[in-house]
Amino acid sequence: MAKNGIWLTAAVTALALAAPAAAWNGRGHMMVAAVAWQRLDRATRDKVGDLLEASPWYGRWTAGALAGATDEEKHRLAFLRAATFPDDIKSASGYVNDHATGAEARRNIGYPDCDQHRYWHFKDLPFSTDGTALEPPGDPNAETQIKTFAAVLADPGADNSLKSYDLAWLAHLVGDVHQPLHATSRFSAGLPQGDQGGNKVKVCDPACGAGLHGVWDDALGKSIDPASVIAAAAALPTADAGAAGRLDPDVWLAESLTLARTVVYHAPVGNGAGPFTLDAAYDDARTATARDRVALAGARLAALIEAAHLRIAPSTPAFEACGQGTFHPPAPKHAGTVITHPTKAKPKPKKHRHHRRHR
After folding, report:
1. Helix axes 42-53, 71-82, angle to 10 degrees
2. What tens digit of pLDDT does each residue of 165-179 get?
3. Does residue 207 sit in helix, strand or coil?
4. Which of the four pLDDT bands, split at 50, 70 and 90, describes residue 338?
5. Would you give the DSSP letter of residue 91?
6. Which stretches of 177-319 are DSSP H helices?
7. Cα gap 127→280, rounded to integer Å
8. Which end of the chain, C or N, has fewer beta carbons within 10 A?
9. Are strands 319-321 and 208-211 parallel, antiparallel or unpaired?
10. Confidence at 100, pLDDT banded by 50, 70, 90
């Protein structure tokens, strides 16, 4: 069996065959996580690792890691795969495709929750180019949940397992809202109820029948081999520092809506349901846009995690995980201390003795 870094290729291939397609696809979401992981400092990575270990999915997320892999290597692998968790539960045993009605649509109870919450993945900001009447986006949505999950991560009293669940969702949703078609629905005379983020628009690329949404999901390839993902993420353009520091999901969605109107729904994509034949110029624009958005999503995810100043509880009670029975989380290794950023210590003074201060 061929070995690749800290994981086994066969195990990765098995997971790839089992993973459902979604937006971005698994590769895109893992690339967002890879960018974020590279930007996190070691102390934050350790605490993220503690949260990942508090998940009943941790064994699956680290499947294929070699016996000699370090904790940090396992945590990186788990973090990449945790970013696909909200799509993985769409086909996992015990989970149900619920509907966004009532209090349960907003509830945040962690891994015991068997609802798939598919409506959390997007916020369809409506627009029309032909005067068709618009419908407002649903609620809850990606924006409401990003704010909810970020608040839980920053809550020093929140349970480790709930933070773990919310971290996986946050890693996924930050990627989702940087995909332009997760931020809009185009209304037209041909599609008066909206095109559901391009899902109802058919294209030829080159074969006909694919949805516009799916073509954008797959803009950066389909392989979820971790080594391939990490290499591709490292080759992305560096996100602008100013843009990376803008942590309001409303801003991210507004950016995606603008890109949808100016890049996604651009010739040869016309009004209505198509089919539209995509050309090389469109494909190049799609790839360039996807690379920029994934790089920016990863930078913002890292900043959002660091802004939470993670605190890990010293223990996590056992709980009933959806479809998996009772789960007993291991004792965390990095409980207690709050991380502040940046963490660089000042040089020790030559003449006076006192404790180093951290900014």
Report:
1. 70
2. 999 999 999 999 999
3. coil
4. low
5. S
6. 212-217, 226-234, 241-244, 249-259, 280-307
7. 26
8. N
9. unpaired
10. confident
